[in-house]
Task: inverse folding
């Protein structure tokens, strides 16, 4: 199953999409930590 790539998502919609993808891919650790990982990436000026 592939998800269409979407641009211009709100932060809430992006968080929901990541949560859904992590559930489908059975990645509970990433699902639980993605907010912290994203915040760290912003702090480190990563894209």
Result:
């Amino acid at each position: 199953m592939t998800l269409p790539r979407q641009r211009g998502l709100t932060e809430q919609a992006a968080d929901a999409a990541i949560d859904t993808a992590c559930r489908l891919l059975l990645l509970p650790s990433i699902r639980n930590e993605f907010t912290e990982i994203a915040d760290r990436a912003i702090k480190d000026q990563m894209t």
